[in-house]
């Protein structure tokens, strides 16, 4: 068995020791998320539509993000910046450096929050409801591409977590600011990109290219025209952008680690 | 100065230096604000031009007051920190190059931290480490069986780490650091906060693995009984500089101060003074003399005392190492 699975298995067993608190957590998260949806839907129904998107269409965007972010949040629990900054602060990270296995294996194996599945379930629920309201013309390509988009999003959000954790190597107490980067960027992708002013949209096109992760694929799935005039391949690069962002984040993490080993704490 | 057994040293450290850039906190609100905008940075020499060799199978005590540079040195030897200048070779490898290969051959215990899994029974942490280090099952069995007996781990093997006492946790951590047969082990304050029995356990264990496996041991400690019982050789660092590197006996000889002669007389004397020694206490039938080893030998003094008085019993007490090292720090003898 690969070591990372063995380490994750340990995390799961530890969580099962506190079964009651686990289920309370799952239930709590679920209720919290549903409240969130109701609030958003309430807001949207006042307007009827957002930038030419119906409520069901926005719900599609939202459901996709919730599924991917929930999955990512579970798989990348070890790179969640608040968690990672604690690893560094409390010296556990030093212990990882003293073991003869890769840091990725160890950090990913340092936490695995199964309760994040509550968020995935809630996202799936929203997505199914949204799809039942929408007349999507399903093709084989669309059906095959949907999981690829989700995989791409998982990598994209994971990359944000990894970059956030890398920042900890420079400024250990800036977790709040880092959360704005990770959660902020994620939430941006829940809405049609045309609701944002140009400068903000440009940031999420050229600096943090999340526009390709959810907005463009959604245009394709829902059969909506592209008001921004991007090339026709724009909806189809989500998986590649995800991979590229993850590779970039690994680079940033390496630079952070080198800085850390140069300065210590 | 250094004493090493064997031809190739286990550790070679030459002109090792580590500088940290530290933000200087300004005073008051204005200072704090300035610190946010344009922090004033100062360079601190945590380790300053340190050189030494350590031979295979040595046990070396690395001493110094808090903030002297002990931990920084240890972190560089473990590859956790990259030095500003200087070279380190441990077992032919540069610690901060090729991390995974290097740490596979060392063991390290940083006293305050645990390498074990907090929520898991101790035994399961050991099993995970077996996979992490890729230890062959039979070798693991052999080492584990030996260590569990020496460290008396059995009573708490199935207890989760979070429920262990500090002494139990430390024993488990030391076991964990040695399961993969490292040729060298770094112990940073291995006995800190432990009771006498637990300390003794750990000392015995360190001695045993050193003797039976030839494991090289470097340890930092504040407890000088550790040094007394374990280390033939002592290095003292202060303000980042290596001040002393020699055998423990040499340290005592140079700075050990006065030895004491305790005498019990057969009858009471009013005046018990003798040449070459100072009477520090005297009551009815007993007296304590202090004498300097450089001026008077114990044999001479005993001869002098027995020539003048009726002696029932005698004892020579060597100077206390704790007192000696404290004097070195406080009086800046080096």
A few lines on this structure:
With 265 residues, chain A is mainly α. Helices cover 72% and strands 2% of the residues of chain A.
Tag the structure with descriptive keywords.
heterodimer; A: 265 residues; mainly alpha; two-stranded antiparallel sheet; 12 helices; 2% strand; B: 334 residues; alpha/beta; 6-stranded mixed beta sheet; 4-stranded antiparallel beta sheet; 11 helices; 13 strands; disordered N terminus
How does this model look, in words?
The complex is a heterodimer of chains A (265) and B (334). Chain A is mainly alpha-helical and 265 residues long. Helix content of chain A is 72%, strand content 2%. Chain A is built from twelve helices and two strands. A two-stranded antiparallel ribbon of chain A has the order 1-2. In chain A, strand 1 and strand 2 form a beta hairpin. In chain A, helix 3 runs antiparallel to helix 7, helix 8 runs antiparallel to helix 9 and helix 8 runs parallel beside helix 12. The radius of gyration of chain A is 19 Å and the shape is globular. The mean pLDDT of chain A is 91. Chain B has 334 residues and is of the alpha/beta class. Chain B contains eleven helices and 13 strands. Chain B has a six-stranded mixed beta sheet, sandwiched between helices. A four-stranded antiparallel beta sheet of chain B has the order 11-12-10-13, with helices on one face. A three-stranded antiparallel beta sheet of chain B has the order 2-1-4. In chain B, helix 6 runs parallel beside helix 7. The longest helix of chain B is centred in the middle third of the chain and has 18 residues. Chain B is globular and about 70 Å long. The N terminus of chain B is likely disordered.
């Amino acid at each position: 068995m690969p070591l990372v699975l063995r380490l994750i298995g340990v995390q799961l067993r530890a969580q099962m020791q506190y079964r009651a608190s686990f289920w309370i957590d799952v239930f709590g998260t679920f209720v919290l998320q549903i409240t969130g949806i109701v609030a958003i839907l309430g807001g949207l129904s006042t307007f009827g539509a957002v930038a030419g998107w119906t409520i069901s269409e926005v719900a599609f965007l939202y459901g996709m993000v919730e599924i991917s972010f929930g999955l990512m949040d579970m798989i990348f629990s070890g790179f969640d910046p608040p968690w990672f900054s604690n690893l560094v602060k409390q010296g556990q990270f030093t212990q990882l450096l003293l073991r003869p296995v890769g840091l990725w294996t160890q950090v990913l194996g340092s936490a695995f929050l199964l309760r994040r599945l509550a968020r995935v379930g809630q996202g799936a629920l929203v997505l199914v409801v949204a799809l039942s309201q929408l007349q999507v013309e399903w093709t084989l390509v669309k059906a095959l591409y949907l999981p690829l988009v989700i995989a791409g999003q998982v990598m994209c959000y994971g990359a944000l977590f990894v970059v956030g954790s890398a920042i900890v190597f420079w400024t250990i107490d800036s977790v709040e600011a880092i959360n704005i980067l990770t959660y902020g960027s994620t939430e941006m992708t829940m809405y049609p990109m045309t609701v944002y002013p140009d400068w903000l949209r440009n940031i999420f096109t050229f600096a943090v290219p999340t526009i390709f992760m959810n907005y463009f694929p959604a245009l394709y799935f829902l059969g909506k025209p592209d008001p921004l005039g991007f090339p026709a391949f724009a909806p189809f690069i989500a998986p590649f952008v995800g991979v590229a962002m993850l590779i970039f984040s690994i680079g940033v993490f390496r630079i952070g680690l080198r800085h850390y080993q140069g300065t210590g704490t | 100065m250094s004493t090493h057994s064997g031809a190739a040293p286990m550790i070679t450290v030459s002109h090792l230096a580590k500088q940290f850039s530290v933000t200087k906190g300004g005073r008051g609100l204005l200072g704090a604000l300035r610190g946010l905008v344009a922090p004033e940075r100062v360079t601190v020499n945590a380790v300053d031009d340190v050189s030494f060799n350590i031979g295979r199978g040595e046990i070396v005590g690395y001493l110094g007051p808090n903030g002297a540079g002990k931990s920084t040195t240890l972190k560089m030897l473990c590859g956790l920190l990259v030095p500003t200048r200087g070279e380190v070779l441990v077992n032919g490898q540069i610690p901060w190059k090729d991390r995974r290969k290097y740490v596979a051959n060392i063991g390290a215990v940083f006293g305050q931290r645990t390498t074990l899994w907090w929520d898991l029974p101790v035994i399961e942490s050991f099993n995970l480490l077996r996979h992490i280090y890729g230890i062959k099952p039979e070798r693991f069995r052999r080492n584990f069986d030996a260590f569990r007996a020496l460290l008396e781990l059995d009573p708490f093997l199935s207890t989760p780490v979070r429920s262990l006492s500090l002494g139990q946790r430390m024993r488990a951590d030391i076991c964990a650091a040695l399961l993969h047969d490292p040729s060298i082990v770094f112990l940073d304050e291995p006995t800190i906060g432990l009771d006498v029995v637990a300390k003794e356990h750990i000392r015995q264990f360190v001695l045993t693995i050193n003797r039976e496996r030839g494991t090289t041991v470097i340890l930092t400690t504040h407890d000088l009984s550790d040094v007394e019982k374990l280390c033939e050789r002592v290095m003292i660092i202060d303000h980042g500089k290596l001040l002393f590197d020699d055998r423990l006996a040499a340290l005592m000889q140079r700075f050990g101060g006065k030895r004491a002669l305790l005498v019990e007389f057969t009858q009471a004397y009013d005046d018990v003074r003798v040449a070459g020694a100072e009477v520090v206490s005297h009551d009815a039938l007993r007296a304590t003399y202090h004498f300097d080893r450089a001026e008077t030998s114990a044999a001479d003094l005993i001869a002098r005392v027995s020539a003048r008085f009726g002696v029932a019993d005698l004892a020579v007490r060597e100077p206390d190492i704790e007192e000696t090292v404290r004097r070195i720090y406080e009086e800046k003898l080096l």
